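Ligand-bound model needed. zinc ion.
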Amino acid sequence: MSIEQEPGNQRDLAYYRQCFKEINVNRTERGEAPYQPILLLSVIDLIAEGLIQANHIHITEELRTTFNKYRNILSPDRSFDSSLSMPFFHLQNEEHQFWHLDYKAEYYRDISSNKKLINEKIRKSIKQLKNYVNHAYIDQELFNLLQDNDSRKELVDTLVSKWFTSSEDIGEDKTEYLLKANKSFQSFIEEEIKKLKKSDKLAQKFYFRKSAAREVVFGKAVVGIYDYKCAFCRLKVSNSLNQNIVDGAHIEPFAISFNNEITNGISLCKNHHWAFDKGWFSLTDNYKIIITTDLQEESPHTRKMKDFHGEDILLPDTKKYDPGKYYPSRESLKWHRKKWRFQL
Ligand SMILES: [Zn+2]
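Prediction:
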C-alpha cells in the first residue's frame, strides 16, 4: 500500500503511518542514522505528558533531554553527528510534509545574502536554531491524532518497527534486537534509580515519566518471545499491518516496580490481559493457571476460563531461548497472587 494509491490522500492514521515509514534518514557507510524518528518519538512523549499542549514544538530542555535519552538507548553508535538541531531542521524536507518550521524575521533577513550558509548554521547548532526559528509545528491532523492514546501507540509502534527493529544491517532476529533495546532501557532506568536518593519520590516520578517507545519495545519483545501467542489460551491472530491480538502485559505494573525486565512480562490476548489485570486469574510458581472462584461464565463457542484451572501456561520456546531465562519471575508472580489474594 503506498500513499499514492490511497483515495484522496486523506490525512488519517494510515497516511501518517506511511509517512513515518518513509522518512528519509541519513545513510552513511555505518548504516542509518535514524534521528528524525528519534525526534518524533521525543515529541510524542512530550505531547503524551502534556508538556507540549498546543501545536508549537519549542526547542526546550525537556525536548533535548528526551531526544538525548532516546538517541543513547536506541542508536548507541554515538559517533554520528546527532545534535537535536539536525533532525529538527531536516524533518521539514520530507516528501510528505508534515513537519513545518516557523521562522523568525531574522531568518528571512539573513538568508537573502546566503541561504545555504544560514541553513548550514542552523543544522549544526541548537543556538543558531533558536536564533532563527520560533518553533516547529506539525499538520493539525497529525497533532489531533497524537492526542488519542490508541493512535499515538500505533504511530510509536510504526516508528519502532520500521526504524529500530530492522534486521538486515545487524543480521539479527527482530525479537533479539528488541530484547537488546529493552535491556538498554532497563539499564538506563536502573542507573537513574541508583543516582536518585531513595527517599526522593518526587524526583522518581519526574524521571520515570511516560515513555511510549519504552513501552512499545517492552511489549513487542515480550510477545515476540511467546511467538505472538496468548500464554493463557494460545490464541494467535495478526494482519498485514503487523497488528496482533496479544499484548506484552506487565505482571507487576511498571508504575509500581519500575521493572521492565522481560521476566516481569507475559504475552496475553486482550481478554486475558484484562482478566489478569483484574485478578480473575493468576499463576503458581510452576506456571499453572489458578482461576478465581468468583466467575459466572457462559461460553457456548470456546472453552470456559474455569476449565483452564490447573493447566500449564505457554512458556517461551526452549529451542530458541534458554529454559527459564525469560520465564515469568517468581517474585513478580508472588506480587500478583498477593495483590489479588490467591492462596496456594
Ligand atoms: Zn487468551
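Residues 227 and 316 are 8 Å apart (CA to CA).
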